[in-house]
Write a structure and sequence with these properties.
Layout: H1 20-25, E1 39-40, E2 43-44, H2 50-66, H3 70-84, E3 90-92, H4 94-100, E4 106-108, H5 120-133, E5 137-142, H6 146-158, E6 161-167, H7 168-173, H8 175-183, E7 187-191, H9 198-211, E8 216-218, H10 229-252, H11 258-266, H12 269-283, H13 286-307, H14 309-316, H15 318-324, H16 333-352, H17 354-374, H18 387-404, H19 415-445, H20 449-474, H21 490-508, H22 510-531, H23 541-558
Parallel strand pairs: 5-6, 5-8, 6-7
Antiparallel strand pairs: 1-2, 3-4
Helix pairs in contact: 3-5, 5-6, 5-10, 6-8, 11-21, 11-22, 12-13, 12-16, 12-21, 12-22, 13-14, 13-16, 13-20, 13-21, 16-17, 16-19, 16-20, 17-18, 17-19, 17-22, 17-23, 18-23, 19-20, 19-21, 20-21, 21-22, 22-23
Length: about 575
């Protein structure tokens, strides 16, 4: 088998696979490729008594041929569609997601298949294989009875006899399933020996199979059997993953990788900060630098909004959303908060360094995200304030203290330097509110484009008023602006950061989205300070340890809770 890119042809509108082998290529990886003798790396194969080696080799040969046969696969897919009811649906668990916090939980509903479980997926394949091989009957063991009911159903569908061995204790406990199997024409053998449980049922069924392998196909129901059954069950059950991938992309517009996208977006923030800081240095005016950055971002968002179909659809939804009350005019304050963030970047990264600035902002974002999620202010709903989240927030605060500590006694340090470091911390707290407003707009508009456009429009207006007021008070006019176009990329990079954040917050909540965004931010900031340090950059052992501590904090706070 070959490895396919995660964005495979099943999700790109390519033709449907013709054989089961082609279908399984869509979901396998090199680590799961199987050898001719059934080995998955160092595991697998077949350890069999001599009397079963021949019959199992026959099954392996027959299955190798069947999985390449388009007619076999077409009949398998037809039965899954017409008899089982596939594809089984996705069900978002909104209330459970709100209760547990973090990512949105979505179930793939295999319990809605005919017979009530996933087992029908492989028993139909085994029944078709048995019929292809000329076998007269299927035989297997069962415990709770789900595999037995599924195999009995599959045998009835294709016209084969079926024999199920079941421990006497399980026969009594699972009487409804026994009745179902018998109604389907299956012979249910109650095993009375020794423990009268599943172990004895397996032995009993194998003894009957070994005595007459020409009559029976032993339909093993898991991947723990001898070759070729691990491959066979893996292949037949792969329908669940293939359906889920296609359904998730159709329903949510992407595979479930929101946190990965957030990390990628967060990694642009250190570069954005360095560009804005350089522009502030060249103009001698951090407010003007912030205004230029936002203006460049606004130009990009206007073009995206006007020239793309999604952007135009989003613009058309603004007025109805305002009229319906799903968006409030004061949500535009998100752009003011964004302006404050860029202004803080321009004013403080030079003297503080990117790493100190970033860790301070991260701490504010983490704490702010916990607060707004606790009160359910974002579209993701209420998310509990767990001890793990509190511990993560405390660790982030300790990391900031560790980074700041060495600079307090140096030239340029002291109380004034510490107060300067407090500014990005407070700005980070405010960005939690910014993400809430952006997420609410994105939910109402169905796209993040209008929310990002509103952000940059409000930010330009806010920074323009601030800069105009300062210019009037000081009597200074507009200085000459640099001609290097790269100095104005901070705004477009901010579009990526704001847009991705607005998209993932409705799914993850502010706190979890912040963790994804800042994970890339934290690591990228140290790289920027090391590769291209400014005069005020402070990269010491404690800076590195503090940044790693902040990263550990977000990992701790986002670690999934143990399910009981």
């Amino acid at each position: 088998m070959t490895h396919r890119n995660p964005e495979d042809n099943a999700l790109r509108g390519a033709p449907e696979p013709r054989t089961l082998a082609e279908a399984c290529d869509l979901v396998t990886t090199p680590d799961l490729d199987v050898s001719a003798d059934g080995m998955f790396g160092q595991y697998g194969g077949a350890h069999l008594p001599p009397q079963l080696a021949g019959p199992m080799a026959e099954v392996a040969r027959a299955y190798a041929e069947a999985r390449q046969d388009p007619e076999f696969y077409a009949e398998y897919r037809r039965l899954l569609r017409d008899a089982v009811g596939r594809p089984s649906p996705l069900t978002p668990l909104d209330r459970l997601s709100d209760e547990l916090g973090g990512a949105r939980i979505v179930l793939k509903r295999e319990d809605l298949n005919h017979t009530g479980a996933h087992k029908i997926n492989h028993t139909i394949g085994e029944a078709l294989l048995a019929k292809r091989m000329g076998k007269r009957s299927l035989i297997a063991e069962t415990g709770a009875g789900q595999h037995g009911v599924a195999l009995a159903t599959a045998a009835a569908m294709v016209g084969l006899d079926c024999e199920i061995h079941m421990g006497a204790i399980d026969v009594a406990k699972q009487h409804p399933n026994v009745v179902r199997m018998r109604l389907l024409g299956t012979k249910v053998v109650s095993v009375e020996r020794e423990g009268r449980s599943l172990k004895e049922a397996v032995d009993s069924a194998f003894e009957v199979y070994a005595a007459d392998p020409e009559k029976y196909l032993f339909a093993i129901g898991s991947v723990v059997g001898p070759h070729p059954f691990p491959t066979m069950i893996r292949d037949f059950q792969s329908v669940v993953g293939r359906e889920a991938r296609a359904q998730f992309q159709e329903r949510f517009g992407a595979l479930p990788s929101a946190v990965v996208a957030a990390v990628a977006a967060g990694s642009v923030m250190p570069l954005q900060g360095r560009i804005n800081s350089r522009l502030a240095h060249l103009t001698g005016d951090p407010v003007l630098a912030a205004l230029c950055s936002f203006a460049a971002g606004l130009v990009v968002m206007v073009l995206v909004s006007v020239l793309t179909p999604r952007g135009r659809r989003g613009l058309a939804r603004i007025r109805p959303a305002l009229a319906a009350g799903s968006v409030r005019p004061w949500y535009a304050v998100a752009g003011v908060i964004g302006g404050l963030l860029v202004l803080t970047q321009s004013a403080t990264i030079g003297p503080l360094g990117v790493a100190v600035f970033t860790v301070a902002v991260v701490t504010g974002q983490v704490v702010g995200g916990m607060v707004v999620d606790r009160f359910g202010l974002s579209p993701a709903g209420v998310q509990r304030l767990t001890p793990r989240r509190l511990t993560g927030a405390a660790l982030a605060l300790a990391a900031v203290a560790l980074v700041v500590w060495p600079s307090l006694g140096e030239a340029g340090g002291g109380p004034g330097w510490a107060l300067l470091a407090l500014l990005p911390l407070l700005t980070g707290l405010a960005t939690a509110g910014q993400q809430v407003f952006n997420a609410r707009q994105t939910t109402a508009y169905g796209t993040a484009i209008p929310a990002t456009l509103v952000n940059f429009t409000a930010g330009v207006l806010f920074l323009g008023v601030v800069w105009g007021g300062i210019a009037l008070a000081s009597g200074h006019g507009m200085p000459a602006l640099p001609h290097d176009w790269r100095l104005y990329l901070g705004g477009p990079l901010g579009c990526v950061f704001i847009g991705v954040g607005a998209m993932v917050v409705p799914r993850l909540g502010v706190f979890a989205a912040t963790l994804g965004l800042v994970s890339g931010n934290l690591l990228g900031s140290l790289v920027v300070d090391l590769v291209a340090p400014t005069d005020g950059s402070t990269v010491t052992t404690t800076t590195v340890l503090g940044t790693l501590g902040a990263l550990a904090a977000v990992m701790l706070a986002s670690w999934p809770a143990r399910r009981r």
